């Protein structure tokens, strides 16, 4: 599983920065096009130079289907999915209450076996400014590290875990998840 999971094209920091800038532009465009709306922007937390592979795409297609089913009670206005060398990107645009959408996706992140690998942003327009809805707005604690359960941002800043350690843990999480799925 490990080898196939991280068997993809490596990307460098400049490609990742360009991808981040392009995502921000896509988010802005979608928010303006469908305003008033709630944008759900999903990427994956995949450490290391390989951000996408056939195995990653296959596994997360299933996870995104589960998330879409969880969000089915909200009216979906638009969706876009991209499979790029810099990672998978999913955009969902809904009508509804941004705090309620954030509550549902935060519960999904916490409750799904691979939820901690998802980076799900819920964004709405405040005037002309895209405004993300934070977990703290719901009274939820910050995200936890999927290895040691400490605050994720603290682990990331201090580089507490090596890339290999994180990749091995992710491979184990995905193997455990896929073993419970029907063929």
UniProtKB/TrEMBL annotation:
- InterPro entries this protein is in? CitX (IPR005551)
Q: Which GO molecular function terms does the record list? A: holo-citrate lyase synthase activity
Q: Which UniProt keywords apply?
A: Nucleotidyltransferase, Transferase
Q: Please state what class of enzyme this protein is.
A: transferase
| Reaction catalyzed | apo-[citrate lyase ACP] + 2'-(5''-triphospho-alpha-D-ribosyl)-3'-dephospho-CoA = holo-[citrate lyase ACP] + diphosphate
Q: Does the keyword Nucleotidyltransferase apply?
A: yes
Q: What is this protein called?
A: citrate lyase holo-[acyl-carrier protein] synthase
């Amino acid at each position: 599983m490990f080898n196939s999971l991280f068997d993809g094209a490596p990307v460098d920091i400049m490609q990742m920065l360009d991808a981040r800038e392009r995502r921000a532009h896509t988010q802005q465009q979608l928010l303006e096009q469908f305003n008033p709306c709630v944008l759900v922007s999903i990427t994956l937390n995949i450490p290391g130079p390989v951000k996408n592979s056939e195995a990653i795409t296959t596994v997360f297609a299933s996870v995104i289907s589960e998330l879409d089913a969880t969000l089915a009670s909200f009216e979906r206005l638009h969706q876009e999915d991209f499979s790029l060398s810099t990672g998978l990107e999913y955009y969902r645009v809904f009508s509804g209450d941004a705090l309620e959408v954030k509550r549902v996706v935060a519960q999904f992140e916490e409750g799904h076996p691979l939820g901690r690998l998802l980076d799900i942003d819920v964004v709405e327009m405040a005037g002309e400014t895209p405004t993300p809805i934070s977990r703290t707005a719901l009274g939820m604690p910050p995200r936890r590290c999927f290895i040691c359960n400490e605050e994720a941002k603290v682990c990331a800043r201090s580089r507490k875990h090596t890339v290999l350690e994180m990749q091995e843990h992710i491979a184990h999480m995905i193997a455990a998840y896929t073993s419970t799925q029907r063929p």
